[in-house]
Each structure stands twice: as C-alpha cells, then as structure tokens.
Design the sequence.
C-alpha cells in the first residue's frame, strides 16, 4: 500500500509540474495578448483622431466652397431663394435679408389651417425655394393668421366614432 501511495505521489508531482508549465505558458500568452490589445487600442485611437481631423477639414473646405459659390452668385447679382415654409414671420424676414432678398407682400391666410401650423408661420412663398433671382428681389409670403384644425370625419376616425351621424 505504501508503494502505491508513493507512486501516486510521484504521479501527482509530475502532473503538478506539468500544470505549472502550462499555466506559465498561458500567462505568457495572456500578457502578449494584453500588449497587442493595448497596441491595437492606441492605433484605433490615432485612426479615430485622423478621421475626425479629416472630416473637419472636409467640412471646412465644403463650407468654403459653398460660401464661394454663394459669393459668386451674389457678385453676379443672382441669389437662391431659401425655404421659408413653417418659419415664423420674423425669422423668415431675417433669412431673406441674409440671403440678399427682401420681404415682399405679406398675405394673412385666415380660416382652417393644416394641422401643426402655428399662427404667424409662413404657409407658402412665391417664388418657391431654390429659385434663382436677382439680388434684392421681393418674396411674397403667405402667413397663417389662425390655427384652427378641421378634424377628419372619415369612417375610421375617432371623431366619427363619437359623432351622432352614425
């Protein structure tokens, strides 16, 4: 029995030494992976910074090109009509002034207005956005004077379900 126990002890010591060597190898591999992870993280951070920088440079150059085109059009006496629909009247006037245009006739539209339109917002403009005009041209604005909403009365609407006309 003692011989068997001594043999078992020898086997366990060999297994223990073998396990220690395997553990050391794993720890070395983990340390190497950690170094690679750190290196990759630093590289990705540098790449991210480069991307941000290039995007900024491109935005600035695109903005400069747009400004140059706008300056060229203005220098030639031609400007593009901005989109004023759903803008408050005072903001629309300011946008027109910044675009090199003037506010023309202002017409108040009374009565039932589209859902979500606030009193004082531009409903339509003449000419439409995107039109090219000589600088200082006047733009006609149709402005909401009341904000009433006409509910839908089709067969599927909630208002129809509650109505006496069913």
Sequence:
């Amino acid at each position: 029995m003692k011989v068997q126990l001594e043999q078992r002890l020898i086997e366990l010591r060999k297994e223990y030494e073998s396990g220690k060597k395997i553990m050391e190898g794993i720890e070395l591999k983990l340390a190497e992976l950690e170094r690679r992870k750190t290196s990759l993280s630093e590289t990705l951070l540098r790449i991210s910074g480069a991307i941000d920088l290039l995007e900024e440079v491109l935005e600035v150059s695109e903005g400069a090109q747009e400004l140059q085109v706008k300056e060229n059009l203005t220098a030639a006496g031609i400007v593009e009509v901005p989109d004023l629909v759903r803008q408050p009247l005072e903001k629309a006037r300011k946008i027109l002034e910044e675009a090199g245009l003037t506010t023309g006739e202002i017409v108040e539209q009374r009565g039932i207005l589209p859902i979500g339109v606030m009193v004082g917002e531009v409903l339509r403009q003449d000419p439409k956005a995107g039109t090219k005009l000589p600088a200082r041209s006047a733009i006609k604005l149709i402005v909401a004077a009341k904000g009433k909403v006409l509910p839908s009365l089709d067969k599927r609407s909630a208002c129809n379900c509650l109505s006496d006309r069913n």
Notes: The helical segments are 2-75, 89-99, 158-162. The longest helix spans residues 2-75. The first strand starts at residue 78 and ends at 80.
